[in-house]
Amino acid sequence: MRPSDIAGMSIAELRERFLGKGRPLPAECEEALRYDARAGARAVYEAVLRRRFENRAEGQRLRHLLRYESALWEKGVSRIAGVDEAGMAPLAGPVVAAAVILPRQFRPRGIDDSKQVDAAMRTRLCAEIKAEALCWAVGIAAVEEIDTINIYRAGLLAMRRAVEGLSLRPEHILIDARRLPEVAIPQDGIIHGDALSLTIAAASIIAKTTRDALMCEHDARHPGYGFARHKGYPTSEHFAAIERLGVCELHRRSFAPIRQALGLDPVQGELFAPEPAAEPDGESRSRREMPKE
């Protein structure tokens, strides 16, 4: 493409070529578009500049999210599994965990902690992650297990099941804030890991999307509670439904609000156990400092 071609293109053609189709604007054509007499053409030029800036910013953000992975890659570790769970706080429904091993060059635009991404973006990212992942798996701890072993251990159980479900054995695990004592694989628990590690963020998106879909299915089986909307979390709508309809089989009877609704005394259980001590060899840790810039 030559600079003289810019003047011969309509505004619609310029938008379609450089914005709609995202084709690169040749360096030799930039000045022609920048100083085009048509305001619409100059607006296309400004939009191209904004897109470049956003792409560079996104690239930097994704590189930041790969700091932990990059440190392991430099040591020769290639199969890194990210692990996270969803559904610790709700009053109803299972805990769902996911584990995923991603290819080294995977850079999904917009990926972040699942709580920071809207439902439509989570759905898109989840499909992209599953399609590109070397392998992924989901682990679930049912309501009955939550009530039997407590919510903290149920979360660990779901994450262990997810790791054990992977078709490839990880060489290292990155996990959000905890560690899996029964999994004999080196691992790092990263505080707020779903916001700091791309691999953990990917796992959080799979876990959250899977659990939300399960709660929508439960909504059809238990109409009136609004599970498709609040996903079992302690919202005013959920409390009103419990008061109106009573407790259903999906509710966690070890949680104080549900016990109160059933007229039972609250149980002070060990909901969140203290973090395990570090392994003697230092290979597996419950927490890890962020690598230096």
Task: Describe the overall structure.
Strands 3-2-1-4-5 form a five-stranded mixed β-sheet. Helix 7 packs across helix 8 (151-164). It has helices at residues 3-7, 11-20, 27-34, 39-65, 67-74, 119-132, 143-149, 151-164, 193-196, 198-221, 227-230, 236-245, 256-261, and strands at 80-86, 95-101, 135-141, 172-176, 187-190. The longest helix has 27 residues, at 39-65. The protein has 13 helices and five strands. It starts with a helix and ends in a 32-residue tail after the last helix. The protein is of the alpha/beta class and 293 residues long.
Task: Characterize this entry briefly.
With 293 residues, the chain is of the alpha/beta class. Helices cover 48% and strands 10% of the residues.
Can you tag this structure with a few keywords?
disordered C terminus; 10% strand; five-stranded mixed β-sheet; 293 residues; alpha/beta; flat
SSE arrangement:
Blueprint: H1 3-7, H2 11-20, H3 27-34, H4 39-65, H5 67-74, E1 80-86, E2 95-101, H6 119-132, E3 135-141, H7 143-149, H8 151-164, E4 172-176, E5 187-190, H9 193-196, H10 198-221, H11 227-230, H12 236-245, H13 256-261
Parallel strand pairs: 1-4, 4-5
Antiparallel strand pairs: 1-2, 2-3
